[in-house]
Amino acid sequence: MARVRPAASDFLRWATLVALAGAAAWASTVPFAVTPPQYPVGALADRTVRAPFAINLVDEEATAERRDAARLATPPVIVWRPEVPQVLKQSIQDALAPLLDILSAPREPAPPVRRGQRAAPPPPLLTREAVAPVERALGVLLPDDALEELQDADALLRLLRALSGVIDDAYAVPLTANYERIERAARGSNSLVVLRSARDGAEQRRVVVEALRSVESLRVSLAERPSTRLEHLPPALGRLVVAVVSLKVLPNADLDDALTAERREASASAVLPVSVTVPAGAVIVAEGQPVLRDAHLVLRHLGSNGGTRASWPSLVGRAVLVLLLMLLPFWQAGADGVRLSLRTSSFWFLVTMLALVIGAFGGWLVLVAGLRASYPGLAEAPLVYLFPFAAPAIYAQLVVGRDTGNAVALAVLAAIIGLVWRSDLAIMAYAFAAGVLGARFAARCNRRQCVLRAGLLCGLALACAAPGIALGVGDPLDLELGLLVGAGLGSGVLAAFTVLALAPILEWAFNQTSTIRLVELMNYQHPLLRRLIETAPGTFQHSVNVGILADAAARAVHADSLLVRVGALYHDVGKTNRPQCFVENQHGTSEHDHLPPDESARLIIAHVPEGEALLASHGLKTQLGAFVREHHGTTTAAYFVHKAEQQGLDVNLDDYRYPGPRPQSRETGILMIADQVEATARTLDEPDGDAFRALAQATIDRNREERQFDDCPLTMQDLAQVREAIAAALEGIYHQRIKYPEAPPRPQAG
C-alpha cells in the first residue's frame, strides 16, 4: 500500500548513515588521553608512561636503513657477450684473407739459368702495394721484418693460429672497460657480481676479481708478458700478434645499470617494514629508565597530531563495520520476509541518538583521561566500564521499541561506541551485553520505578559479567576485582538515572513519546481529557471506543498499540471548542439545520487544526499531533457534500476536504479506519459479526479507492488482519445482553 518515496529521501538517509559511520571510525582513532611527555633518546623518564591503546608503528628510519642495506647487498648485473671473441677472430681472418690468397696462388716458373750464372732470387709475393689494403683493414702497419716472414702460406697460417689462441686467452675472463666502476658497485655485495649472458640469459654469480678483467690490464699484460702461444713464431710475427690483439681487442662485459637498479629495488621492496608494537596498557617507558629508540618513536607518535592510531585502509574497514552495525535496527520482518528499510518514522531519532551517544562516550573518555592525569593511581578500565552503556538501549526500548520491535538490536549502539575505546574486544563485548540486558529488563516498562528496577538488574548482571569478560578475552587483571564489579553495578544504576533525567529533554527535542509518558497521558485527570469529558462527553465516549478498536487492530499487525490507543483518546480534542456541532454531542436539534452546507463543513473540518492548537497549548507537541492531523487524511465531509448536491448547489470538493496529510504511519492509518467504522457502526440495524466485518471491509475499500493509504506502510495482509480485529472488537462492544425478569415486589414489613 505504501507508495515509493522519492529517491532523494533514500539517498539522504544512506548518506547520513555513511557519514556517521565515517565519523565514528575517525573517532575510534582519537586517543582521548593526555599527550604523553617527550624525551630524547637516552634521557631518563621522570614517570611511567603506558600505551593508551594498542600501537603498531612503522619505524621509517630503520626500515629505510634495512632497505638501503638490501640494495647494496644485491650484486650488480654484468651483461656478458660471449660471441665477441669469435667475431673478432673472424674479422682478423677476413682482413688477412687477401694475403692468404696471394700466397696460395701458383707461381710462374723461373726462367732458365745459363751455365755459369747464378739464379736470381724470386721476387717477394707480398709487396707493400699488396699488403696496403690489409694494413688498412687491420689498422696496423706490417713491419718489414714481419713482412719478410710472411712470404709463404705456412707462415701466414701459423700467424692466424697464434692470433686465434691469443684472443681466446684474452677472453678467458670477460673483459670490461669499466672495471673500477663495477668494483665500486660490488663492494656492498661482498664483491659479488652476476654475469648474465646476453645470448641466452644464463646467469652465474662470481667474485668480481675472478669474473672480470679490464681491457687496459690485458694490454699491459700482453706487452710485458707475451703469451706462450708465440714461442714457436719468429719474433717479428710475435710482435705483430701482440700489436694486432692489443689494438683490436674490445670489451665484452659491462654493468647493466637498469637491470641492477631494478633488482636492487626489488630487494628493497622485499624487506618488510620494521614495526614497533605496543599492546594496550603496556609500559612504553618506566620511571627512572633510559628512553630507548623504540620508546622515543612511540612517544613521538602519540604526541604528534593527536596520536592517530589507524591508516586509511583501517579507517575504511572500521567505517564499514560501524555501518553494518548501524543497519541492524532497520531490518524488519514483513509478509515478504526480512528486508532492510530505512523508511521508518524513527530513523532520524535513531541516527541522532547514535551520534549523541558516540559524542557522550568521547566526552566520558576525556573526563577519564583528565582524572587519571590528576590522580595517576586511578585504574583506567573500571572508570571506562562505569559509563552508562545500557542507557541508549533502555531509552530506545521506551521510545522506539514499541515502533520497530528492534530495541534489543539497538544494543549495537553500545557496541559501536566500544570501537571508540581502543577497539578493545572486552569493552565491545561488555557494552553489547549492557545494551542487550538493558533493553531486555526495560521491556514493557510503563512506570519510572520500572526503569530504576531495570537499571539495578542490569547493573547486577554487569557486575558479574565485567570480570568474566575481561578474563575471557585475556586481559590482565592487575587491578582489584572489586573495582570491576563495582563499575558494572554502577554502570547499570547510572544508566537508569541517566534515562530518567534526560528523557523529558529528549522527548521534547526528538518529538518522541516514551511508554511512561504515554501511560501518563491516559490518565483521565489530564487537563485536556478532563475538558473533553466535561464539554464533549459524546466525543469522549466515541474516542474511548475508537481506542478499543484501534488497540485490537494494532495488536493484530504488531503495530504500537499503546501509542494508537492514546492517539485515539486525543484525536478529537478539537471538538471541545464547539461540541454541539458534532452529532455525538447533540440532543434534539442540530446547529447545521440552519447553516449552508459549506459553512457546516468548515465548522466540522476546523476541529483538526483546533485540536493541534490545543495539544500545543498543553505541551503535547509529540507524536499525538500526527493522530489529530491524519485521522481524516484528505477525505471530504461526505454528509455535507451530499446535502449540498441535494440542494442543487454548485459543489467544489476542495471546500469540503480535510487539510490532511494522509496517514503517514501504520498507527495513524489504523486510527482512520477505526474512527470511521466506530462512527458508522452505531447506525447498523442488525449489529453482528458479519455486518461488522462487511462494514470494516467497506471502510477499508473506500479509503483505498481515495488513496488514503498511499503514504503509510499498511500492506494488504495488514488490512485483512485489521478488518478481522475490528470486527471482533465491535462484537465485544455491541454484544447482546441477557434481559433479566423483573423482580416481584417485596412485601411491606408490618
Report what the structure shows:
- α6 packs across α10 (235-248) and α20 packs across α21 (481-510).
- By secondary structure, the chain is mainly alpha-helical.
- The model is unreliable at 1-6 and 402-409 (pLDDT under 50).
- It is elongated and about 190 Å long.
Q: What is the overall number of helices?
A: 32
Sketch the major β-sheet: 4 strands, mixed
- Multimeric organization: single chain
Tell me the helix content. Answer: 55-70%
Radius of gyration: 51 Å
Distance between the termini: 75 Å
Major sheet: arrangement of strands? 6-5-3-8
The overall average pLDDT, rounded, is 82
Assign an overall shape: elongated
How are the secondary structure elements laid out?
Elements: H1 7-27, E1 49-50, E2 55-58, H2 60-73, E3 77-80, H3 84-104, H4 128-138, H5 144-149, H6 153-170, E4 175-176, H7 179-185, E5 192-197, E6 203-207, H8 208-211, E7 213-214, H9 215-224, H10 235-248, E8 253-255, H11 257-269, E9 275-278, E10 283-285, H12 293-303, H13 312-327, E11 331-334, E12 337-340, H14 347-374, H15 380-385, H16 391-399, H17 401-404, H18 412-420, H19 425-441, H20 448-472, H21 481-510, H22 515-521, H23 527-535, H24 537-556, H25 561-570, H26 597-605, H27 607-617, H28 624-630, H29 638-646, H30 666-681, H31 689-705, H32 716-733
Parallel strand pairs: 3-5, 4-7
Antiparallel strand pairs: 1-10, 2-9, 3-8, 5-6, 11-12
Helix pairs in contact: 1-13, 1-14, 2-11, 3-4, 3-6, 6-10, 13-18, 14-18, 16-19, 16-21, 18-19, 19-20, 20-21, 23-24, 24-25, 24-30, 24-32, 25-28, 25-30, 26-29, 27-28, 30-31, 31-32
